């Protein structure tokens, strides 16, 4: 039987303000880790919509993507369980908006931290994945691609509307 390889598609926000990068501190199977606000793309949403949703869920703030930072691939192998996952990450940068009053942080998120580039580099052993640092390095280097570099056909969001019925 032929098995099709299916990487897990995730979206992430690389948010910088006044020389500091926003990271979330979260509980993971490997312990307390630092990550960019990020999560899995849900059925029926575009990558931009997914990124906006994930930032809201993990930070309780609105987010407006302004550019695609890049597309990244990484692999996680958990020795304890034998789990082997490949992640395909679409990372966006943009503007963090206001906090949504009364909105709780997503399950597992302990809090938000703002770190300088040097502090992010110094905390790499606590990063949830090597993509945390790589995405921030690309942002600091000025990498930006237009948002329309990621095209979502209307059939995708139509699926979301049908699933909501």
UniProtKB/TrEMBL annotation:
Requisite cofactors: Mg(2+)
Pfam assignment, any one: NUDIX
Residue stretches making up the Nudix hydrolase domain: 4-137
One Gene Ontology term of the molecular function aspect: nucleoside diphosphate phosphatase activity
Source organism superkingdom: Bacteria
Magnesium keyword on record: yes
The EC number(s) this enzyme carries: 3.6.1.-
InterPro entries recorded: NUDIX_hydrolase-like_dom_sf (IPR015797), NUDIX_hydrolase_dom (IPR000086), NudJ (IPR033713)
Keyword line: Hydrolase, Magnesium
Enzyme superclass (EC): hydrolase
Family: Belongs to the Nudix hydrolase family. NudJ subfamily.
Oligomer status and interactors: Monomer.
Protein name as annotated: Phosphatase NudJ
Organism: Tepidimonas charontis
Upper lineage: Bacteria, Pseudomonadati, Pseudomonadota, Betaproteobacteria, Burkholderiales
Name of the encoding gene: nudJ
């Amino acid at each position: 039987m032929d098995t099709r390889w299916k990487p897990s598609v995730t979206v992430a926000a690389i948010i910088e303000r006044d020389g500091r990068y926003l990271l979330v501190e979260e509980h993971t199977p490997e312990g307390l880790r630092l990550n960019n606000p990020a999560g899995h793309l849900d059925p029926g949403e575009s990558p931009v919509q997914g990124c906006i949703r994930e930032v809201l869920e993990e930070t309780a703030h609105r987010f407006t993507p302004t550019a695609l930072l890049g597309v990244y691939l990484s692999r996680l192998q958990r020795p304890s369980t034998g789990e082997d996952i490949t992640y395909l990450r679409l990372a966006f940068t943009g503007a963090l908006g206001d906090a949504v009053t009364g909105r709780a942080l997503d399950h597992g998120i302990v809090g938000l931290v703002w770190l300088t580039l040097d502090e992010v580099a110094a905390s790499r052993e606590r990063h949830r994945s090597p993509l945390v640092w790589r995405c921030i390095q690309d942002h600091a280097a000025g990498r930006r691609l237009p948002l329309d570099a990621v095209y979502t056909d209307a059939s995708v969001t139509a699926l979301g509307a049908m699933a909501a019925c």
